[in-house]
Amino acid sequence: MSTEKHTARAASIAGTATAARVTSLASLASAPAVAPDQEAAARPTVVLVHGAFADASGWMETAARLRHQGFGVEAVANPLRGLDYDTAYLKGMLQGIEGAKILVGHSYGGAVITNAAADVPGVKALVYVAAFAPDEGETLGGLLEQHPDPGVPPLPQRAVQFTRPDGSTGTEVMLDPAEFADAFAADVPAKTAALMAASQRPIAVEAFGQPARQAAWKTIPSWALVATKDHAIAPSLERFMAKRADARITEVNSSHAVMVSHPNVVSDVINRAYHATR
User: I need a labelling partner for 271 at 20 to 30 A (CA). Which of 127, 167, 225, 236 fits?
Assistant: First the structure.
């Protein structure tokens, strides 16, 4: 496979889902947090990091549940400009959050929390939601190439070139909106999946060629949610990375958009991480 085709395919395979839904935004805004008490005050902040082809709104239903349970929640706007860039951005965000933290990454967001968390004080747990968990020195493109799965069909992809401010040319990848639902959000209501496709954010191809500099799961307790109907990251690869990280694994019959289709399961895994590390 050529470098250009491999990079574009790697970027497309690591995509994620987003839900730009007015109802979801309203539910998060109106969801009351649990009345403060000693336990709630001591709870960590849950930091939610989305992956490619998404934005922070994909976490809205999960975030609403966590707030109702008394957690502080930060849904980070992941820049999707490359692992080095996105890691630096997340570290900066985390430095502004006082106290204990649980980091949750979906898809490509898992690589970002893996690369960022080791240098940030107060991170109690990592939660991988249908996510990458690379080891030090690994690239996401390399992981995909080394762990192929014939049961996972190729994703529809569009490579788009753009001009950077310095005049150089960059390349980013998005998914064909007409095929987005089948590829990424097969168990999400059709209207929601259509909005996710329309509002998807592309990812720079650099994200899949830059090696992870650290593997925070080696020192921080980890949990993993494997989506068994995932057509973006093969479930077999998700299991491999989760087992290697010695993560507590939960499996759910879900598409890649698990935080949209199964927010209760996602929030439950986060709660398990909290109770095991408090």
Answer: 236
Rounded CA separation 113/42 (Å): 22
Q: What is the pTM of this model?
A: 0.86
Burial class (CB in 10 A: 0-12, 13-18, 19+), 194: middle
- What phi and psi values does residue 171 have, to the nearest 5 degrees? -130, 135
Q: Can you tell me the distance from the alpha carbon of 40 to that of 54, in angstroms, rounded to the nearest whole number?
A: 30
- Tokens 């630096």, located at residue: 88
Tell me the torsion sign for CA atoms 58, 59, 60, 62: positive
CATH topology assigned to domain 3-277: Rossmann fold (3.40.50)
pLDDT digits over 19-75, tens only? 333 333 334 444 455 444 555 568 999 999 999 999 999 999 999 999 999 999 999
In this structure, the chain runs to a length of 278
Helix 60-68 with 263-277: angle, nearest 10 deg: 50
Residue 261 CA to residue 150 CA, distance in Å, equals: 25
Measured N-to-C along each axis, helices 83-95 and 108-116 cross at an angle, to the nearest 10 degrees, of 60
Residue at token pair 């395979």: 13
Return the CA Rg of the chain: 17
Please give the Cα distance from 60 to 235 (Å, whole number).
24
